[in-house]
Amino acid sequence: MRWLVLIASLWMPLVGMASEVRLKDIVEFDGVRGNDLIGYGLVVGLDGTGDGIRNSPFTEEIMSNLLERLGVNVSGEDFRPKNVAAVFVTATLPPFARVGSQIDVTVSAIGDASSLLGGTLVMTPLNAADGEIYAVAQGTVIAGGATAEGVGATTTIGVPTSGVLPSGARVEREVDFDFTELDALRLALRNPDFTTALLVENAINRQFPNSAEALDAGTVRVSIVGAQAGSPARTIAVMENIRVEPQQKAKVVVDQRSGTIVMGADVRISRVAVSQGNLTLRVREDPLVVQPNPFAEGETVVVPRTTAEIEEEDGTGLAEVPDGTNLSEVIAGLNALGVSPRNMIDILKSIKAAGALHAEFIVR
After folding, report:
1. Which residues of 50-65 are buried (b: 16+ CB within 10 A; e: fewer)?
2. pLDDT tens, 45-64?
3. Alpha-carbon gap, residue 48 to 119, rounded angstroms
4. Taking the CA of residue 267 as centre, how many other CA atoms within 13 Å lie in the half-sphere pointing to its CB?
5. Name one GO cellular component term (predicted).
6. With contact defined as beta carbons under 8 Å apart, do 152 and 131 qualify?
């Protein structure tokens, strides 16, 4: 029964021995990357859930500029629409995107609009970090939440002030990058590790002899000429399906907010003794109201009455955690203490401080 309770209350995945994975799943290829885009626009057609113009003067400014570009003179006019919201529009321009292709965009309200549900994004240019326009977004916003409001209460599900436009932007400019002119490729490991870099080098050299070289823990250089596979695109197509067995340092990751503990397969604990117990302090206030007798002189007073007590719960005694030769034995030794997940976190911290936990300890 204890094991069932511990398994239900403590999510501690048993990470087995590393298995072979494709190269494309652990590295990024140099030059094959996206570019972030951002724009500032208007969402119109809202059902009274837009910005309050007095609270969001920038909405009125951009709306006036847009109408004037369309030939409508609104100078000096007093208009207070509630169906318009100012938004930031963000997107990622994928690698090798061509003019005319479409990409997804996200819109987020920046004023006091309560919902973007049912709105339409007006044509919005999207700029990259160099200030150039690379795409233009326009279309119906799909919001992911809803708000219900009454006289005495309001409830909200999701985030109605943010939404997406699937394929809502059209690419108008391409990134100037000639992939075919590369004479070498650099592979960047997502999780840098010297052993993994050497394994990647060896795996590529088995496919393309004498073409790969590990430069550091996070970079492997591959010669296109040495690979003799033709174009860089053909070389990558073959390399990304090569399988390797990545290696990582032993880690224990702890999330104190949720009480989650995740251990890697290589975590080891030296022989150590652990004792755990709790002190509980209870303070209770039971004030007593004292009143004078009827028709007697005096006043009503509140007499404080406090009860304080300290209880010490039975601990586990001094329990021995043996040498952990594998992850299953480590977990079995820790679970034998019969403690809660949050107390388990404190125990792991203490074991690490004692020098008996042989892994990188990460607290989030």
Report:
1. bbebeebeebbeebbe
2. 888 887 776 666 667 777 77
3. 11
4. 28
5. bacterial-type flagellum basal body, distal rod, P ring
6. no
Nearest-angstrom CA–CA distance, 107 and 91: 9
Let me know how long the chain is.
364
φ/ψ (deg, to 5) at 12: -130, 85
Distance CA 127, CA 113 (A): 24
Residue in 210, 28, 54 with CA at minimum distance from that of residue 201 = 210
CA–CA dist 34, 92 (Å, integer): 6
Helical segments of the chain, H only: 2-9, 57-69, 194-207, 224-227, 232-239, 327-335, 341-353
The Cα-based distances of 107 to 38, 42, 74, 164, 357 in angstroms read 10, 10, 26, 6, 46
Give the pLDDT confidence of 264-284 residue by residue, as tens digits. Answer: 778 887 777 776 665 555 666
Contact status, residue 49 vs residue 98, Cβ threshold 8 Å: no
pLDDT at 8 over 50: no
CA 310 to chain centre: 42
Mean pLDDT of the chain: 78
Question: Helix, strand, or coil here: 243?
Answer: strand
| Strand positions, DSSP E, 1-132 | 21-22, 27-29, 35-44, 84-93, 102-109, 120-127
Nearest to 281 by CA among 305, 304, 312: 312
How far is it, in rounded angstroms, from Cα 287 to Cα 284?
A: 10
Tokens standing for 168? 């809502």
**Contact, 37 vs 137, CB < 8 A?**
no
Alpha-carbon distance of 282 to 113, in angstroms, equals 47
Residue 117, pLDDT score: 86
- What is the chain's Cα-based Rg? 32
Tokens standing for residue 261: 């503990």
Locus of tokens 């299953």 = 328
**What is the value of pTM for the model shown?**
0.64
Strands 251-255, 360-363: pairing kind: parallel
Assign 11 a pLDDT band (cuts: 50, 70, 90).
very low
Rounded average pLDDT over 124-149: 85
